[in-house]
Automatic annotation (TrEMBL):
<keyword id="KW-0560">Oxidoreductase</keyword>
<dbReference type="GO" id="GO:0010181">
    <property type="term" value="F:FMN binding"/>
</dbReference>
<dbReference type="InterPro" id="IPR012349">
    <property type="entry name" value="Split_barrel_FMN-bd"/>
</dbReference>
<feature type="domain" description="Flavin reductase like">
    <location>
        <begin position="29"/>
        <end position="174"/>
    </location>
</feature>
<dbReference type="InterPro" id="IPR050268">
    <property type="entry name" value="NADH-dep_flavin_reductase"/>
</dbReference>
<dbReference type="Pfam" id="PF01613">
    <property type="entry name" value="Flavin_Reduct"/>
</dbReference>
<dbReference type="GO" id="GO:0042602">
    <property type="term" value="F:riboflavin reductase (NADPH) activity"/>
</dbReference>
<dbReference type="InterPro" id="IPR002563">
    <property type="entry name" value="Flavin_Rdtase-like_dom"/>
</dbReference>
<protein>
    <submittedName>
        <fullName>Flavin reductase</fullName>
    </submittedName>
</protein>
<comment type="similarity">
    <text>Belongs to the non-flavoprotein flavin reductase family.</text>
</comment>
Length: 177
């Protein structure tokens, strides 16, 4: 019986680790499908809704209930969101691509014409979102050009039915179970 010989992929035979090209990094990691969420709040200074789109959302812990997401250090929306008492993570549905685009854009009235209601914690729940998760910022961890936000869940529920908005290889799509 012969034992198969392991082969190396992505290796030129040398025992060195090459520098990682940022565009190649983005292209390779883009092969990992992610869901898309909108993080929303009421700006405590203006009383107006604010938000941003995120595709780096994940559950962290059941006890205590924690979630996390990453935000660019250059985000102009994040300072307004983190100043709020409560954040709401809205799990976006496959038909909410335009909502995602609006919340991903810089500046402007992101909520103009978007229907929403207040969550029990007082943050915007977007009409059509699959689920909402009220939370408060627990910790922020610097991580390169982003900040990892860990948030404590204070309430959550299903909202609408349908498929999720999925981000894969630089494009949006859907998933059917």
């Amino acid at each position: 019986m012969s034992i198969p010989v392991a082969r190396r992929v992505g290796h030129d035979g040398a025992r060195r680790i090459p520098a990682v090209n940022p565009q190649h990094f983005r292209n390779v990691l883009g092969r990992y499908a992610t869901g898309v969420v909108a993080v929303t709040a009421i700006d405590p200074e203006t009383g107006e809704p604010c938000g941003l789109a995120v595709n780096s959302f994940t559950s962290v812990s059941l006890d205590p209930p924690l979630v996390s997401f990453c935000v660019s250090r250059t985000s102009t929306s994040w300072p307004r969101l983190k100043a709020a008492t409560t954040l709401c993570v809205n799990v976006l549905a496959d038909h909410q691509r335009q909502v995602c685009d609006r919340l991903a854009a810089k500046g402007g009235d992101k909520f103009g014409g978007l229907p929403w209601a207040l969550s029990p914690g007082g943050a915007p729940v977007l009409d059509g979102a699959l689920a909402w998760i009220d939370c408060t910022v627990d910790k922020e961890h610097p991580a390169g050009d982003h900040v990892i936000v860990v948030a404590r869940v204070t309430g959550l529920d299903r909202h609408d039915d349908g498929g999720p908005l999925v981000f894969f290889r630089g494009a949006y799509g859907s998933f059917e179970a």
